[in-house]
Give the backbone structure.
Amino acid sequence: KAGVTQTPRYLIKTRGQQVTLSCSPISGHRSVSWYQQTPGQGLQFLFEYFSETQRNKGNFPGRFSGRQFSNSRSEMNVSTLELGDSALYLCASSYPTQPKETQYFGPGTRLLVL
Amino acid sequence: DAKTTQPNSMESNEEEPVHLPCNHSTISGTDYIHWYRQLPSQGPEYVIHGLTSNVNNRMASLAIAEDRKSSTLILHRATLRDAAVYYCILSRETSGSRLTFGEGTQLTVNP
């Protein structure tokens, strides 16, 4: 079974631009979560989508948004990029959606904002 | 989510057992204890989870204290590939699939 895939793997943007990151979950998984990892703040939860609906949201500004498609693939968007948005963005998928179930993480998208 | 406390770093020698501790004194009855690890330049990887009883799988063992206020991840024979940051995480049904990561324990394995 293929793992979680994320595209692109690396991205360089400039302040003020917007960016869209993509995540394809493991086949059959219906929940997709997004995390931001930075050296200063560690791994922080952004949001979770299940059946095209946002089920959970972390403490991030509205510039961070996401969506999920009917095939469970998910995208996250960051508008008006700031230098502090430079980070590794990770997505994780799971099925079913109970917390005791394993979360499978992708390799991440490394975003650099200049 | 209830908080966990782990040592910042630990060292081990190759082929020796490693015991990684985690304190979670405010754990509630419905909190599951999860362990994930993150190898360099990779996303986190599931290791093991449990609720009340000790658990074993091909990667590790999880020993849970009787009062559930602490747990220990046991790697029976550490290899160089086990060098990673290990995260102890509590999760409850009401938090959905959300995982709240702490700082974790950086495990160094010496050859």
The interface with chain B takes residues 4, 31, 33, 35, 42-45, 48, 50, 55-56, 58, 90, 92, 94, 97-108 of chain A (CB under 8 Å).
